[in-house]
Amino acid sequence: MQMLKWSKIHVANVPGEISLVAGLVMWATTIPGIRRKMFELFLDTHYFYVLFVFFFILYVGINYSCMMLPGFYLFMVDRYLRFLQSRQRVRLLSARILPYETLELNFSKSPGLSNTPTSIMFVNVPSISKLQWHPFTISSSSHLEPEQLSLVIKSEGSWFKRLYQMLSSPSLMERLDVSLEGPYGPASTHFLRHDTLVMNSSQLTMLDLLHPLSGTSSGFSNLQLQIEAYVTGEKEPTTQNSKLLQTIWFKPNASDAPISAILGPNSWLWLAAIISSSFIIFLILLGLITRYYIYPIDHNRCQIYSYSLKALLNMLIICICIAMTASATVL
């Protein structure tokens, strides 16, 4: 019966067990076979981190949770800012229908936003699914195209098929609502330490190899490139695959905005202001609640007021302070 015990003033077993199960589920989906073949499952199950952290804090109490508070607090700030970014509608300039059921989406971008090689963006098309977010590698360089960001999307999965059907349909499409989150990356830049690189790729993975070469426009003259390209196909091209390229231009909308840094050009300064001000407000509210609500009940004996309820109050105050200061800064 100890497994079902939820102690009021000591360690509670039930939230610890829930946190353990959530952690095991996330760990199971990180197995390479599952992560690569079922990425959407991998991504969705990792939202269990909310349950993992929430019940972990209820399990150990807020006092022991302070050891992870700095990292958790910074993560919450970043996550909420990304959420605010994902709520915006970005300006989709055009879409190109390429051979072999491949799409290129071109977005308007603020010149102040720079993306590094091999960066990725998460894309959401509400008309297809309001919940599905899919990652794609950026195929443009912010140094060569400062006001445009391009994504090339390969033919894989039901989500892409619905998007491809929408764009390739005979009916004229004047507008497509799209939300973006990112950019994230790069995963690694260790290759920049070498003087000579031998790179092999196929299909759209060649984009990842071309990114390091497109870092700056002035660097091309200093590069000694030897390129060998072989155009092959796994099967004979059909009539559909052999059709000419098609470009769809979308009408601008006043509610759309170029892709930009969520906190503007001086993002580091605004981020420091959000972190410091929200934490100061958190300490003030925590002190007031402890003095005028918890102390009259418990009188600092830690034997009456519930550990779990105290942890819940602290988490609620943290979320309110971060949401309040970040929203005020962005809006």
UniProtKB/TrEMBL annotation:
Lineage: superkingdom: Eukaryota
InterPro entries on file: FAD-bd_8, FAD-bd_FR_type, RBOH/FRE, Riboflavin_synthase-like_b-brl
Alphabetical keyword list: Membrane, Oxidoreductase, Transmembrane, Transmembrane helix
One MF annotation (Gene Ontology) recorded for this entry: ferric-chelate reductase activity
GO cellular component, one term: plasma membrane
Residue spans crossing the bilayer: 12-34, 46-76, 268-290, 311-330
Protein name in UniProt: FAD-binding FR-type domain-containing protein
One Pfam family this sequence matches: FAD_binding_8
PROSITE patterns: FAD_FR
Origin species: Liquidambar formosana (Formosan gum)
Positions of the FAD-binding FR-type domain: 85-190
UniProt keyword Iron present: no
